[in-house]
Amino acid sequence: MRGRCYPTGDLSSIIGLGSARSARHDLAGGVRRTLAGSFLAALEPLEGHGMRQVGMLDLRREFELFRDEVRRTTLEVLDSQQFIGGPAVTELEDALRQRVGVRCAVAVSNGSDALLCTLMALGIGPGDEVIVPAFTFFATAGAVARVGATPVFVDIDPRTFNLHPERTAAAMTARTKAIMPVHLYGQCADMDALNALGRQHGVPVIEDACQALGATYRDRPAGALGTAACISFYPTKNLGGFGEGGMIFTDDEELGRIARQLRNHGESQRYVHERVGGNFRLDTLKAAILLVKLRFWDEFTRRRRHNAARYDELLRETPVTPPYVAPPCQAVYHQYTILADRRDELQAFLKEAGIGTVVYYPVPLHLQRCFAALGYRPGSLPATEEACRRVLSIPCHPMLEDEDLQYVAGTIARFYGQQRAGARDAVCSTRKA
Q1: 296-427: which CATH architecture?
Q2: I need a surface site. Which of 64, 165, 170, 285 has the fewest CB within 10 A?
Q3: What is the pTM of this model?
Q4: What is the radius of gyration, based on Cα positions, of the chain?
């Protein structure tokens, strides 16, 4: 079989080029049977001309799996004219609440607002401190700053990239009002140790699980491991929507009640406001489409894990360090992130070969200009800063074929092989001279 080819194009986007080929399938049958047939159709190699391209995502090809059902669902919402607070919102909350195993699920406008709304519901504000990692997306610390509290940046475990419990303990003060670990790249933080700290100091632990829906820690799902948890349905997430979206999980029913009020301007009944909230609502149409995608989520997760295990094998003899998964954890590989020497050169080499990559994250939060007043300097968080210099995320999405995985891994091996050959040639030339 010929290798898969796409038309050449701009790889600067994290969304990979997709197929125009239709993947028709019968949605009336069982989910596993439907998915099996759909994947076979959607993963057929494309014949064409130009360089092989492997994007970080292939949302167009994903869409072929559920195009018809999304269209039907969209028309149902349009016919109902219930665009805000329609039944799909409650149905999505119930479905994920049961999957995660918590008492309360509150659908909100996006993952950033889920973090903000949770902090507001906990009463965190000016004069308070919240411990966060510096190696994460901006929204984690941004939400803390938006409620008027101070983010206290703590270094990471250099293997898992997650909040380091011992350094977290050292950063606790009388002003600490919450610990907010991030389950980065789809692997849970060390929740036993962090929850123990929370209990010791009497502060809540808020999971930023925006990248980790479906991950587990000691066989318990992300989202059910702390006082509250926040997830994102941003289109690139493992359960990605058609636009922005998020959700808050908690077993604390009073906290859930307050969060539900806050998402609608603090309203307890029509035009009666107990507190000042915001417009954090999730649209009915977005919820309805997420319910369609939810049927594919388990299979997408299975494929991501399969791809990650395959990369582990293929990259074993290369100089890069594959992701480390701590023994209590089962990751969902929102990103498959390697540690690489000469990272920027490798990234350029992969781009030249038609392979999309992204650096998550090149600038740590403690060195962002907007947090300069907090007084952090280069060298303050060495493990974080080293990760920013060396991490590189490579394609691991569920639409990849084994040929794609071999091509990516082989190109990485070729880069380091050329580097070693160049070094040997330089040594020989020096000796001859």
Answers
A1: Alpha-Beta Complex (3.90)
A2: 170
A3: 0.88
A4: 23
